[in-house]
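DUF2190 family protein
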Amino acid sequence: MKNFIATGNTLTITAEADIASGAGVLIGSILGVATGPIANGAEGVINLTGVYDLPKTASQAWTVGAKVYWDNTAKACTTTVGSNTLIGIAVLAVGGSAGETTGRVRLNGAAV
């Protein structure tokens, strides 16, 4: 097959700002997680699939299987649809206390 390019699990991007390793990066309508730090203007790799612990909206409980969206203003996951981008599903229940600010998400790997 001469037209195969890649498996599509990663994407090389040029950062428009400094990006920390493990940070969520929204490119159009797809979210990836930085595999390492990426300096502003430099190229780096983001993972488009997999399961990650990501920042989430505080005081918001999640159930396993709940749709998870990316709030690009807050740079955090949420179960609130609004103008947020669908990025995957919750794979671990998490409580809704103000101190629970991390959620486990399986990225859907698709632009929607």
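thats it. Residues 26 and 111 are 10 Å apart (CA to CA). The first strand starts at residue 10 and ends at 14. bye
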